[in-house]
Amino acid sequence: MSNTAAHPPNFDVVIVGRGPVGSTLANLLGLCGLRTLILEREAKTYHLPRAVHFDDECMRVFQTIGLADAILPHLTLSPGMRFVDAEGRLLLDWPRPSEPTAMGWNLSYRFHQPDLEAVLNDGLTRWPQVELRTRCDVFALEQDHDGARVRYEELDTGRLVDITCGYVVGCDGARSLVRRFIGSALDDLGFHERWLVCDVLLRKERPDLGDFSIQHCNPQRPATYIRGTGNRRRWEITVHPDEDAVEITQPARVWELLSPWLQPTEAEIERAAVYTFHSAVAQLWRNGRFLLAGDSAHQTPPFLGQGMCAGIRDAANLAWKLARVIAGQAKPDLLATYQSERAPHVRELIELAIRLGGLINTKAVEAALATGSARGDGQLKLDVQKPLLGPGLACGDRSLTGRLAPQFRFRVHGRSDDRVGYRFALLCRSGLGAAMIDQHHASLSAADVAIMCGEEAGGLDAWLDQHGFDAVLMRPDRYIMGAVRDGEDPATLIAGVARLAPLPSAA
Ligand SMILES: Cc1cc2nc3c(=O)[nH]c(=O)nc-3n(C[C@H](O)[C@H](O)[C@H](O)COP(=O)(O)OP(=O)(O)OC[C@H]3O[C@@H](n4cnc5c(N)ncnc54)[C@H](O)[C@@H]3O)c2cc1C
User: Fold this and answer.
1) What is the pLDDT of residues 233-286, one digit of tens each?
2) Given ligand 1 and candidates 59, 238, 295, 356, which is best to mutate, with the most ligand atoms within 8 Å of its CB?
3) pTM
4) Could you give the CA distance from residue 172 to residue 502 in angstroms, rounded to a whole number?
5) Which domains are present in the chain?
6) 490 in ligand 1 pocket by Cβ < 6 Å?
7) Contact indicator for 15, 169 with CB cutoff of 8 Å
């Protein structure tokens, strides 16, 4: 391994895999100014979609990397999901509001994955210190105290290449090689089912199919309908254990299965493939200089549409921590908070997705209603709360720690995240910000903490009032790190950034 003093590493970070998670992470690292290399085995992004839905939090991350406006034209809003029985009677409604949430974006977007990945990949070209090498198959990793070494094969030439770096992040999907080098097993959360995923392109308008996602809770053949963007529509249909995965993807059989909703004259099949949906979380997300993000760290059944979303959250949680550690502004221990914060969050979502998968069986709907995970108020409605981050960073009052801070509109113009950038920010009640800047100018700029005040950010004072705080510290990933009440010294929060270190419980 190279001696870093004598031979600085070729890159700060090497990302293995340019799926949506690797590409988002590279954009965030580019924003942080890190020398980043992405190594991707394939020449082009996968031309067919897997993910079709993402949420307001993902859009906020895309806003942070300056790509929300480029992504927005490719999206449609989702009004929500409905569960119906085999006769089409509504069992359960899960509506999504048409108004933006406190994140400043809508709760549920539909998209075509290749469109999103094209924007993310184009976005990489903005960062001169970020490089993408395609047709490069990573096959070996090493690390020691000084750095890491990545070995890969250039698939077009057969040349073997060796490079050094500070950290390696495996965004290399469910069969991750980096996970094997980390030596991590997967915790199996118990769900493994085969589903036929069938994407069609409508030849004629079919408004009757509707905009809601529909879960057909037919115990004989559970199925999901999802309205895609443009003329794309998707059906995901259970494959029985005795059915052959090749036979069921033959056009005649696919049309037979689609016949309750669609006839062959009305659409062409773009893709019919059997996927086995797994539910698993890696036991170790980091070993020294090697880390995991996205499907390499966790896999979920798609019923909540949260697999990719979870990976985007990983990227947002990890990038600023890597940047601080590499810049010497934080101890490498900070990276221990990555798994401690993210793993419980994603595990809760996977468990919810498994329960939701179970709801597609009508008996399970009754059971869920009996246990109160859905509530009845005339019409049965489902209301899903976002999980909290697991234990990690906290300072001051911890009652809001692990939740996302809202995004505020500036009274004059613009959104608060754009003003703050990918940095810490102290959100202060009116009257407090100017005093804070006067008193703590040096420590604020040393810790790279922005200040946002109630005078300029519409709704900030009301939000602080609601929670009884004078100031709240927001991290670069928009999660809350701590808060102070009337009479407490906000300097505690600035000091918390300066001495970034995990809680003993997260170490
Ligand atoms: C049918 C279906 C529906 C889904 N719906 C949703 C949804 O609605 N919403 C949602 O959020 N999620 C959904 N998901 C999940 C989502 O698609 C995945 O979570 C997401 O694509 C994972 O992204 P990733 O970047 O982690 O990995 P991937 O997209 O798998 O990318 C990994 C990349 O790493 C590369 N690679 C692997 N090994 C190497 C190596 N050794 N060297 C170089 N390169 C390598 C691969 O070529 C690949 O490009 C769905 C999944 C499926 C299957």
Assistant:
1) 999 999 999 999 999 999 999 999 999 999 999 999 999 999 999 999 999 999
2) 295
3) 0.94
4) 27
5) 11-74+112-187+281-354 (3.50.50.60), 395-506 (3.40.30.120)
6) no
7) yes
Could you report the per-residue pLDDT of 65-99, keeping only the tens digit for each? 999 999 999 999 999 999 888 888 888 888 888 99
> 345: which 2 tokens?
């969050």
Ligand 1 pocket, residue 49 CB under 6 Å: no
Q: How far apart are the first and last CA of the chain?
A: 27
Sheet with strand 449-453: strands edge to edge: 395-396, 480-484, 471-474, 424-428, 449-453
Cβ of 16 less than 6 Å from ligand 1: yes
Element holding 438 (H helix, E strand): helix 433-446
Which residue, by CA, sits nearest to atom 18 of ligand 1? Answer: 308
Give the Å distance between the CA of 466 and the centre of ligand 1.
40
Is residue 456 in contact with ligand 1, taking CB distance under 6 Å? no
DSSP secondary structure of 177-233: HHHHHHT--EEEEEEEEEEEEEEEEESS--GGG-SSEEEEE-TTS-EEEEE-STTEE
**Separation between Cα atoms, residue 123 and residue 30, nearest integer Å:** 10
Beta bridge partners of 13: 36, 167
Q: Say if residue 47 is exposed, middle or buried (CB neighbours under 10 Å; 0-12, 13-18, 19+).
A: exposed
Could you tell me the distance, in angstroms and rounded to a whole number, from the CA of residue 46 to the centre of ligand 1?
Answer: 9
Tens of pLDDT, residues 207-242: 999 999 999 988 899 999 999 999 999 999 999 999
- Ligand 1 atom index nearest CA of 137: 42
